[in-house]
Please model this.
Amino acid sequence: MSFDFVEPQDFFRMLFDDAEFCSGLGKVMLAAGMLETNLRRYLGSKQVKFKDSDTLGILVNKLKQTDLLTENGKAHFSDLAKKRNYLAHNLYGLFSNEFDVTILPREQLVSVDTLMFVSRVETLYNDFVYFAKIVAKADISKDKLL
Model:
């Protein structure tokens, strides 16, 4: 059985042109913004200093530095920040061979693999929404957020 593998640059173009992937990616970015806003509110309620311009990674580091997360919480929030940054900053670099393969594959992709990428962004979007809700409903009287 042989497959018609798509060159990495061509696969990026397929993702770029895929409305479902782009919609999912947009939802990830919007949900990440929702989580950032909820984290700023939470940190403010805990009297933790931050800048309004602090992004997700910085806010997650503030949670860690102030001991507001359990080990599981650290893993979850770090993973979210890493994946958001990867999608926002490294996707084109991945398919341009500028970056090594880490989170997403680059080689031996076929056109139907766009569906896997769509599924990945939908899952990540749902994860962001889930954790944004947890932060929004957090009991600030507790020592740990999560």
